[in-house]
Amino acid sequence: MKKVCPVCHKVFETSGNYQLYCSVRCRKIHHKEVYYDRTRPIPQYVVGDKVLREFRCNKCHKLVLVTSEKDRRRKFCSPHCEKLYWKHPRKPKIEEKQEVV
To answer: So what's the pLDDT on residue 100?
Structure first.
């Protein structure tokens, strides 16, 4: 079955219906564009809505109230906080001091 990759628009051959992208690289590019989109609206709590779950963001410790079943957030208030949380600072290189004899 031939398909067209939505990222690079290359025609590729696939053996099943499940494959959407021509390569892992294109899949990751598309995921980053969609998931980390800063213009994507974050659902806000409206007074009177039924709260399905609540939690504190692991990064900024803000209280998050989830009211929609489509909202899959469980640990972070936004993709931005999640990205910052998993971004580890670089460890400084420890230079070994040699003793002069």
So the answer is: 58
Instruction: Assign 95 a pLDDT band (cuts: 50, 70, 90).
Output: low
- Phi, psi (degrees; rounded to nearest 5) at 31: -60, -45
Three-state SS annotation for the chain: CEEECCCCCCEEECCCCCCCCCCHHHHHHHHHHHHCCCCCCCCCCCCCCCCCEEEECCCCCCEEEECCCCCCCCCCCCHHHHHHHHCCCCCCCCCCCCCCC
Structure-token pair, residue 63: 């209280």
Whether this model's pTM surpasses 0.85? no
Domain parsing of the chain, residue ranges: 1-35, 41-88
CA pair distance 6, 99, nearest whole angstrom: 60
